[in-house]
Design a protein that fits this description.
There is one protein chain. By secondary structure, the chain is α/β, with parallel strands linked by helices. It folds into 2 domains: 267 residues, Aldehyde Dehydrogenase, Chain A, domain 1 (3-Layer(aba) Sandwich), CATH 3.40.605; 186 residues, Aldehyde Dehydrogenase, Chain A, domain 2 (3-Layer(aba) Sandwich). It has 15 helices and 24 strands. The protein starts with a strand and ends with a strand. The model has no long low-confidence stretch (mean pLDDT 97).
Length: 471
């Protein structure tokens, strides 16, 4: 099936098309029109015009719009899930979970907006003030540009479209080139809805040329981007005076303390390191283990990893399928080979079948090895021996990234110290740092990004505060 451009509510095609091949089979699974700078500008102009009508729409209409999309998505769950699996190789069970999460995200966006309000201000609280009626309210920014990645090609789109549209904005979406059909099918649910605001959503496809045209334009007031640090850096330098929300890379770490339930910790860590083939910004990459329990935990970790089923993403029992492309597979193999050359020891023999890179647990890893310094974005996790929690904190924080960390311990005082001392946007106690609930604020510090997602927090990013005084 072909994805199509949406110039507002109108579908369009182009003479040139790009093909998307399955990461698992190599078969062509979708096609998308190849857009250019002019297409991006056209979509932005349509959005600018539509934003005037979106702002005047009622909240009741916008909430009904999102809830209608959620219902239609529920009805088409299996088709959308299979499309995700076709385009990005996500195991079908986890593709279904992504659809369910998307339904929750859209529903939550509507429910959140119903209760978001301004507040009155006591202007006579200061001697220089006087008794007035003063208050503030939130208003839509106008046009939002949303740029999304391949690893969650549905739910990360929802985290941008849901808050932006329910707040009364118009949106231009540029989805990942790896999953154009997923984005098209999702966008069509919005556009076909009986509650839709005409032309409030446009969809264009492409890479740098289209992205540059979108972010450098004076029309959008918010750029919401999820992706790599290098691209985030370009956006920051190119966007000009507008709000920029960036959810970028991570190098998630955890600390295993001797009081923890080691078997539980190993099971959780295996899931956190290898879910979605490690292609998650908060994939567990670094495990700092107290020296007294290092050998025991390493054995448990290897055992837990061996139990994970790897294979066809169309099998309901498969936990881990292929990486997104050949380049990702070659990069993962390079990470492992370079670490071995530096003295690391693989607890499981590195094994590659097509684009399936089997889970790799690396022991005897040092902090100066590239495999723990950079984001690998692959099914590779490293075990590092430490002497104490203080030692672990220093090493975990000694990273340019700070998205999510976790700690496994039954020591209450250590839990409190972890919350205070770990430098990241999110801290998890007694679970993997890969844990994320869509209702929470989500984002990082340092190179991991700027701003927060999660419906309530994204709505705040995608609205402006207007202050009113009535004398």
């Amino acid at each position: 099936m072909d994805a199509k451009i949406f110039f507002g509510s109108n579908e369009a095609t182009k003479e040139e098309w790009s093909e998307r091949c399955s990461p698992y089979s190599g078969d062509v699974v979708s096609r998308a029109p190849i857009c250019n700078e002019e297409d991006a500008k056209k979509a932005l102009q349509i959005a600018q015009d539509a934003a005037k009508f979106a702002k005047k729409s009622t909240l009741a209409q916008r909430c009904s719009w999102l809830l209608d999309v959620a219902q239609k998505l529920r009805e088409q769950k299996e088709d959308i899930a299979k499309t995700i699996t076709d385009e990005v190789g996500k195991p079908i069970t986890y593709a279904r979970i992504e659809v369910e999460r998307c339904i929750e995200t859209i529903t939550l966006s509507a429910e959140t907006m119903r209760t978001m309000a301004g507040e009155t201000i006591n202007t006579d609280a200061m001697a220089s003030g006087k008794k007035t009626m003063a208050f503030f309210r939130r208003e839509p920014v106008g046009v939002v540009v949303a740029i999304t990645p391949f690893n969650f090609p549905l739910n990360l789109v929802a985290h941008k479209l849901g808050p932006a549209l329910v707040a009364g904005n118009a949106v231009v979406l540029k989805p990942t080139p790896e999953a154009p059909l997923t984005a098209y099918k999702f966008a069509k649910l919005f556009i076909a809805s009986e509650y839709a605001i005409a032309d409030a959503l446009s969809v264009v496809y492409g890479d740098a040329e289209v992205g540059s045209a979108l972010i450098t334009s004076d029309i959008p007031r918010v750029i919401s981007f999820t992706g790599s640090v290098p691209v985030g850096n370009i956006i920051t330098k190119s966007a000009g005076i507008k709000k920029v929300g960036l959810e970028l890379g991570g190098n998630a770490a955890t600390f295993i303390e001797k009081s923890a339930d080691l078997a539980m910790a190993a099971t959780k860590c295996a899931l956190g390191a290898f879910v979605n083939s490690g292609q998650v910004c908060i994939s567990l990459q670094r495990i700092y283990v107290e020296a007294d329990i290092y050998d025991e935990f390493a054995e448990l970790m290897a055992h837990a990893t061996k139990k994970l089923k790897v294979g066809s993403p169309y099998d309901d029992e498969t936990f881990m399928g292929p990486l997104i492309d050949d380049e990702a597979c070659a990069r993962a193999l390079h990470w492992v080979e370079s670490a071995i050359e530096e003295g690391a020891i693989p607890l499981l023999v590195p094994h590659v079948e097509g684009r399936i890179f089997h889970p790799c647990v690396m022991a005897n890893v040092r902090d100066d090895m590239a495999i723990v310094c950079e984001e690998v974005f692959a099914p590779i996790v490293s075990l590092v021996k430490v002497e104490s929690f203080d030692d672990a904190v220093d090493r975990m924080n000694n990273s340019p990234y700070g998205l999510q960390f976790s700690v496994f311990t039954n020591d209450l005082s250590l839990m409190n110290r972890a919350v205070d001392e770990l430098d990241a946007g999110g801290i998890v106690i007694n679970d993997m740092p890969t844990l994320r609930f869509d209702i929470q604020p989500y984002g990082g510090v340092k190179l991991s990004g700027v701003g927060r997602e999660g419906p309530r927090f994204a709505i705040e990013e995608m609205t402006e505060i207007k202050s009113i005084v009535i004398c």
